[in-house]
Amino acid sequence: MVSNPVSSHPVASKLRTTIVDDDVEVASLHAKFVGAHPAFDVVAIAHNGPEALTLIADHRPDLVLLDFDLPGLPGLDVLRDVRAMGGAQPEVIAVTAARDVDSVRQARSAGIQHYLVKPFTALDLRARLDDVARDRLALVASGTREELAQRDIDALMRTGGRGRVQLPKGLSGETLAIVEEALGSVPNSSAGEIAELSGISRVSARRYLEYLVETDRARKTLDYATSGRPSTRFARSVVG
């Protein structure tokens, strides 16, 4: 079923959003979460791959909440076809149960910067929406300038200049990105949990997590609720 515009009061200044999920109830819940954010307006909902392509082509949204496991056409294939359309491209938040390393790598290769593993909380989604809204506002504010300073480019690219930083010996940029994405999808995680999500050893995961802490991209706390020695938990740093 192709959905008509969802919001009865669309606001031009809001970021137009398309929800894509094969589960009707889940899609409606996501639409409710997004619609509650003051910066976003849900314009359409799709429940399969071909429908998603049609709606994205029709509405040209600023943001797509994209599930990967879709009937008719997988979510990542939907995104590749959207990229091939050309023109203004939407931001994409992956909302998926896929935790495997290959899915995360493919998502990053497709330009996805936000990856939420189901189930997640409204607060988790809200944090990603805040990031998207902040980035889009920065782009709009920069649109009147012909040239940007490096710090402005870093901010828009969400790198903070990280691309110029030499990683410690034994750490790779690709694996670091996967670990950081895993950390963002499962807050307050142990090194073992991140290792499982990232497909690396616990020792390696701990090295990457400690590097993220050292560079202020993550924080760690001690959990005294566990029996015996307190366990170390990691969470992505809150920006803003």
TrEMBL record:
<dbReference type="InterPro" id="IPR024187">
    <property type="entry name" value="Sig_transdc_resp-reg_cit/mal"/>
</dbReference>
<keyword id="KW-0010">Activator</keyword>
<dbReference type="GO" id="GO:0005737">
    <property type="term" value="C:cytoplasm"/>
</dbReference>
<feature type="domain" description="Response regulatory">
    <location>
        <begin position="16"/>
        <end position="133"/>
    </location>
</feature>
<dbReference type="Pfam" id="PF00072">
    <property type="entry name" value="Response_reg"/>
</dbReference>
<keyword id="KW-0963">Cytoplasm</keyword>
<keyword id="KW-0902">Two-component regulatory system</keyword>
<keyword id="KW-0804">Transcription</keyword>
<dbReference type="GO" id="GO:0003677">
    <property type="term" value="F:DNA binding"/>
</dbReference>
<dbReference type="InterPro" id="IPR011006">
    <property type="entry name" value="CheY-like_superfamily"/>
</dbReference>
<keyword id="KW-0805">Transcription regulation</keyword>
<keyword id="KW-0238">DNA-binding</keyword>
<feature type="modified residue" description="4-aspartylphosphate">
    <location>
        <position position="67"/>
    </location>
</feature>
<dbReference type="GO" id="GO:0000156">
    <property type="term" value="F:phosphorelay response regulator activity"/>
</dbReference>
<protein>
    <recommendedName>
        <fullName>Transcriptional regulatory protein</fullName>
    </recommendedName>
</protein>
<dbReference type="InterPro" id="IPR001789">
    <property type="entry name" value="Sig_transdc_resp-reg_receiver"/>
</dbReference>
<dbReference type="InterPro" id="IPR051271">
    <property type="entry name" value="2C-system_Tx_regulators"/>
</dbReference>
<keyword id="KW-0597">Phosphoprotein</keyword>
<dbReference type="GO" id="GO:0003700">
    <property type="term" value="F:DNA-binding transcription factor activity"/>
</dbReference>
